Structures are given as C-alpha cells and as structure tokens.
Amino acid sequence: MGEIPTIQTNKLSQSLLLLSSCECRIESFAYRRSKERYLYLATNQSSNSFELFCYTKIMIIKNATQVGNPVIRKKSKKVSGINSKETKKVVRDLIDSMRHHGLVGMAAPQIGKELRIFVTEIRETNVRTHNKSTDIDGVRVYINPKIKSLSDKTNKGWEGCGSVACAGLFAKVERPKEVVVEAINEKGKKFALEAKGLLARVIQHEMDHINGVIFTDAADKKTYMSREEYLSMVSK
Ligand SMILES: [Zn+2]
Fold first, then answer.
1. Please, are residues 124 and 135 in contact by the beta-carbon 8 Å criterion?
2. According to the model, what pLDDT value does residue 46 have?
3. What pLDDT, on the 0 to 100 scale, is given for residue 127?
4. 106: three-class secondary structure by DSSP
5. Which of 51, 159, 186, 206 is an active site residue?
6. How many angstroms separate the alpha carbon of residue 145 from the centre of ligand 1?
7. pLDDT of 133
8. Beta strand 37-44 with 24-32: parallel, antiparallel or unpaired?
9. Ligand 1 centroid to 164 CA: how many Å?
10. What's the CA-to-centroid distance between 220 and ligand 1, angstroms?
11. pLDDT, tens digit, 9 for 90 and up, residues 45-55
12. Separation of alpha carbons 218 and 210, rounded Å
C-alpha cells in the first residue's frame, strides 16, 4: 500500500467509470510504483462484497454469511456443472475469501451459495501462529465431497468459524481424529484423501457446513471463549 494516486491512466479511468455505473463505491487506493499498478478496493452495495481491482477486477472478497441467515442451516445441493463458469467462480471466491478472512477452510454456504463445495488451506493465520510444520497443507478444493470413513479414535480441538460472530467465538469440539474423504477437485478430477491432524478436523467442520451444521451444535459448552481470550491463551 502506498500513496493515493491521481486518476491519470486511461485504463484506471475506464474502470472507475465502470464502477460508478454498477453501484460500487471506491473505498481505498494503493499504488505500487515498482509494477506501475493501481489497486483499489470497492464495495458493491448490491452483492454485499468487497472487490479488489487492479486496472481490471482481480479478486472478490465475500463477507462471511453469519449464523441466523437461513443459508447457513440449509443442506446444500449437489453440484451438477462441475466445470461450469459458475462453479469455477464459487471456488475462486471461496479461496480469496478464506484467505482474506484469515480462515483455514470455507464452505459455499458461507458466501451465500447452497452448493456442496468447500476449500481448505492449513497455514499460519492471525489466530494460528503456533502451527507445527506438519500441520501445513496447501489449498485443496472439494466438490460434491463424501466422507468414506471416520476413525473410532477421537480428540478434542479448538474451533472457531467465520460465520459465527465473524470468528469471534472459540470452543472445543470432539471429532474423529482421522477421515477419508472423496471429492472432485477444481480440475474436475475425482480424488480420495486420507487426512489427520488439523486437516481432518477442518474437513469435518466444512462438511458440516454443507449439511447445515455448525461447530457450536456439538461444542463442549463449558469451553466457549472469546477470540481475545483464545488469542491470549494460545500466545502463552
Ligand atoms: Zn465454519
């Protein structure tokens, strides 16, 4: 981020004209001199989203749908057009939004789509700075996922959710330690994945989302903790 540029390039002016004609409001500018690029963030009033533009639109950040919105409690529908433009857009929006909100997983209902799609990316975030390197896992896309098996052994782990008070509430949830999931990836290929550790937990949490279930349904009620208290506990 840097100085606020004056509007001087044709391309930027064109983009601004486009924005002003589609209910978008410019929120902020950034200018990277090294790459001669303008970045600007706009809010789109009609779709309730932030959009980040770089001359032309490059990223859409969706606000995480909050519990109380009916879509969070619906059983999502099977995706029929695996390779359709709509599916590709949902996947892209999910990945961008998951990263923007500092989440390690996000499911389609959380961006208002009743579709059986979720993404995971186990990485360091604002609330996860204490990772073991074994807990890192690159971005994965799961379309029409099915849980094939769950281990008998369970464990309790901390969870929060972008759709529950914008990840402002944490609690311990008991879940099977290992999971085998089958799904279709972003390239339309079927895959099976055996997961353990945090990835297994996140897969189960996201799977719950597409079935209208949220982590607070099964959480140990006595462990509820605010984000601030949770951060102070894990930083010790
Ligand atoms: Zn969640």
1. no
2. 57
3. 75
4. strand
5. 206
6. 16
7. 58
8. antiparallel
9. 7
10. 16
11. 555 666 555 54
12. 16
Strand partners, 218: none
Quick one: pLDDT at residue 126?
75
Question: Which helix or strand (DSSP H or E) is residue 38 part of?
Answer: strand 37-44
Cβ atoms of 61 and 49 closer than 8 Å: yes
Residue 161 has φ and ψ, to the nearest 5°, of -155, 135
Looking at every residue in the chain, the average pLDDT score rounds to 82
For 57-79, write each residue's pLDDT tens digit: 446 677 899 999 999 999 999 99
Neighbours of 62 (CB within 10 A): 23
Between the CA of 208 and the centroid of ligand 1 the distance, in Å, is: 8
Would residue 51 show up in a list of annotated catalytic residues for this protein? no
Q: Which CATH class is domain 63-234?
A: alpha beta
- Domains of the chain, by residue range, sit at 1-62, 63-234
Looking at the chain, the whole-number percentage of residues with pLDDT higher than 70 is: 72
What is the spatial distance between Cα 172 and Cα 215, in angstroms, rounded to a whole number?
Answer: 9
Cα separation, 231 vs 63, in Å, equals: 22
Dihedral sign of CA atoms 206, 95, 157, 161 in order = negative
* Closest among 157, 155, 164, 173 to 226, alpha carbons compared: 164
Residue that the structure tokens 């969070």 belong to: 72
179 burial type by CB count under 10 A (0-12 exposed, 13-18 middle, 19+ buried): buried
